[in-house]
UniProtKB/TrEMBL annotation:
This is SRPBCC family protein. CDD domains: SRPBCC_3. InterPro entries: START-like_dom_sf. It comes from Croceivirga thetidis.
Length: 163
Protein backbone atom coordinates (compact mmCIF):
# COMPACT_ATOMS: atom_id res chain seq x y z
CA UNK A 1 0.00 0.00 0.00
CA UNK A 2 1.51 3.31 -1.11
CA UNK A 3 1.86 6.32 1.19
CA UNK A 4 0.85 9.69 -0.31
CA UNK A 5 1.49 13.20 0.95
CA UNK A 6 -0.20 16.58 0.67
CA UNK A 7 1.88 19.63 1.59
CA UNK A 8 0.22 23.06 1.70
CA UNK A 9 1.54 26.48 2.73
CA UNK A 10 -0.60 29.57 3.09
CA UNK A 11 0.25 33.01 4.48
CA UNK A 12 -2.28 35.26 6.18
CA UNK A 13 -1.88 38.87 7.36
CA UNK A 14 -2.87 38.10 10.95
CA UNK A 15 -1.07 37.44 14.20
CA UNK A 16 -0.10 33.90 15.09
CA UNK A 17 -2.40 33.98 18.13
CA UNK A 18 -5.42 34.84 15.96
CA UNK A 19 -4.59 32.04 13.52
CA UNK A 20 -4.20 29.57 16.40
CA UNK A 21 -7.50 30.63 17.97
CA UNK A 22 -9.32 30.01 14.69
CA UNK A 23 -7.57 26.80 13.58
CA UNK A 24 -7.56 25.08 16.97
CA UNK A 25 -11.34 25.42 17.35
CA UNK A 26 -12.83 22.29 15.71
CA UNK A 27 -16.11 24.13 15.04
CA UNK A 28 -14.32 26.37 12.53
CA UNK A 29 -13.49 23.42 10.27
CA UNK A 30 -17.01 23.67 8.81
CA UNK A 31 -16.29 27.27 7.73
CA UNK A 32 -13.35 26.15 5.56
CA UNK A 33 -14.86 22.92 4.17
CA UNK A 34 -16.80 22.96 0.88
CA UNK A 35 -20.60 22.76 1.31
CA UNK A 36 -20.88 19.78 -1.08
CA UNK A 37 -18.86 17.71 1.43
CA UNK A 38 -21.87 17.68 3.80
CA UNK A 39 -19.50 18.22 6.74
CA UNK A 40 -21.21 17.97 10.12
CA UNK A 41 -19.63 17.57 13.58
CA UNK A 42 -21.40 14.90 15.64
CA UNK A 43 -19.40 15.20 18.86
CA UNK A 44 -16.15 16.25 20.48
CA UNK A 45 -15.99 19.93 19.48
CA UNK A 46 -17.44 21.31 22.70
CA UNK A 47 -14.07 22.07 24.37
CA UNK A 48 -10.85 23.80 23.36
CA UNK A 49 -8.40 21.49 21.60
CA UNK A 50 -6.44 19.07 23.79
CA UNK A 51 -4.35 15.93 23.33
CA UNK A 52 -6.56 12.86 23.30
CA UNK A 53 -9.62 14.75 22.05
CA UNK A 54 -11.86 12.58 19.86
CA UNK A 55 -13.94 14.41 17.27
CA UNK A 56 -16.64 12.68 15.22
CA UNK A 57 -17.86 14.04 11.88
CA UNK A 58 -20.06 13.00 9.03
CA UNK A 59 -18.54 13.84 5.67
CA UNK A 60 -19.36 13.16 2.01
CA UNK A 61 -15.95 12.88 0.34
CA UNK A 62 -17.59 11.98 -2.98
CA UNK A 63 -21.12 12.44 -4.33
CA UNK A 64 -23.43 9.72 -3.09
CA UNK A 65 -21.02 8.49 -0.40
CA UNK A 66 -21.34 9.64 3.22
CA UNK A 67 -19.16 8.29 5.99
CA UNK A 68 -18.41 8.85 9.64
CA UNK A 69 -14.92 10.22 10.23
CA UNK A 70 -13.40 9.96 13.70
CA UNK A 71 -10.17 11.81 14.46
CA UNK A 72 -8.00 12.07 17.54
CA UNK A 73 -5.91 15.11 18.39
CA UNK A 74 -2.66 13.34 19.25
CA UNK A 75 -0.22 16.24 19.77
CA UNK A 76 -0.69 19.89 20.71
CA UNK A 77 1.89 22.60 21.30
CA UNK A 78 -0.32 25.60 21.94
CA UNK A 79 0.21 28.33 19.37
CA UNK A 80 2.68 26.30 17.29
CA UNK A 81 1.21 23.02 16.02
CA UNK A 82 -1.26 20.21 16.45
CA UNK A 83 -1.69 16.78 14.90
CA UNK A 84 -4.90 14.96 14.10
CA UNK A 85 -5.05 11.30 13.16
CA UNK A 86 -7.97 9.39 11.70
CA UNK A 87 -9.20 6.60 13.94
CA UNK A 88 -12.08 5.62 11.68
CA UNK A 89 -13.02 6.92 8.23
CA UNK A 90 -12.46 6.82 4.50
CA UNK A 91 -8.66 6.47 4.53
CA UNK A 92 -6.45 3.53 5.47
CA UNK A 93 -4.20 6.14 7.17
CA UNK A 94 -4.62 9.88 7.76
CA UNK A 95 -1.97 11.77 9.74
CA UNK A 96 -2.39 15.57 9.51
CA UNK A 97 0.16 17.99 10.98
CA UNK A 98 -0.81 21.68 11.28
CA UNK A 99 2.06 24.15 11.86
CA UNK A 100 1.97 27.92 12.48
CA UNK A 101 4.97 30.20 12.31
CA UNK A 102 5.41 33.94 12.34
CA UNK A 103 6.61 35.56 9.13
CA UNK A 104 7.03 39.16 8.15
CA UNK A 105 3.58 40.72 8.01
CA UNK A 106 1.66 37.74 9.34
CA UNK A 107 1.60 34.01 9.86
CA UNK A 108 2.52 31.00 7.75
CA UNK A 109 0.19 28.02 8.00
CA UNK A 110 1.66 24.73 6.89
CA UNK A 111 -0.20 21.45 6.55
CA UNK A 112 1.47 18.11 5.97
CA UNK A 113 -0.85 15.17 5.48
CA UNK A 114 0.43 11.63 5.07
CA UNK A 115 -2.30 9.29 3.91
CA UNK A 116 -3.01 5.86 2.46
CA UNK A 117 -5.93 4.87 0.30
CA UNK A 118 -7.79 1.62 1.12
CA UNK A 119 -8.81 -1.07 -1.40
CA UNK A 120 -5.34 -2.02 -2.71
CA UNK A 121 -4.94 -1.67 -6.47
CA UNK A 122 -8.39 -0.11 -6.88
CA UNK A 123 -7.42 2.56 -4.32
CA UNK A 124 -4.14 3.23 -6.14
CA UNK A 125 -6.07 3.74 -9.37
CA UNK A 126 -8.57 6.03 -7.60
CA UNK A 127 -5.79 8.17 -6.05
CA UNK A 128 -4.88 10.22 -9.17
CA UNK A 129 -8.37 10.05 -10.71
CA UNK A 130 -10.50 10.96 -7.68
CA UNK A 131 -8.76 11.40 -4.34
CA UNK A 132 -5.92 13.70 -5.41
CA UNK A 133 -8.32 15.96 -7.34
CA UNK A 134 -10.76 16.08 -4.43
CA UNK A 135 -8.04 16.98 -1.92
CA UNK A 136 -6.78 19.76 -4.21
CA UNK A 137 -10.32 21.17 -4.46
CA UNK A 138 -10.78 21.03 -0.69
CA UNK A 139 -7.51 22.82 0.04
CA UNK A 140 -8.07 25.43 -2.69
CA UNK A 141 -11.50 26.09 -1.17
CA UNK A 142 -9.93 26.37 2.27
CA UNK A 143 -7.35 28.82 0.92
CA UNK A 144 -10.10 30.99 -0.59
CA UNK A 145 -12.21 30.93 2.58
CA UNK A 146 -9.27 31.86 4.81
CA UNK A 147 -8.40 34.76 2.49
CA UNK A 148 -12.01 35.95 2.64
CA UNK A 149 -11.99 35.75 6.45
CA UNK A 150 -8.54 37.24 7.09
CA UNK A 151 -7.25 38.84 3.88
CA UNK A 152 -4.19 38.09 1.76
CA UNK A 153 -0.54 38.62 2.53
CA UNK A 154 1.12 40.55 -0.30
CA UNK A 155 4.16 38.99 -1.94
CA UNK A 156 3.61 35.44 -0.71
CA UNK A 157 2.83 32.64 -3.16
CA UNK A 158 0.70 29.93 -1.53
CA UNK A 159 1.79 26.37 -2.26
CA UNK A 160 -0.12 23.12 -2.67
CA UNK A 161 1.77 19.96 -3.52
CA UNK A 162 0.46 16.41 -3.68
CA UNK A 163 2.75 13.40 -4.20
Amino acid sequence: MKLYQLHAKQALPIKKEEAWKFLSDPKNLKKITPEHMGFHIISGADRPMYEGQIIQYVVKPFPGYATKWVTEITHVKKGDYFVDEQRFGPYALWHHKHFLSEIEGGVLMEDIIDYKIPFGLIGQIAQPLLVKKQLKKIFKYRETQLHELFGSLEGFENELELN
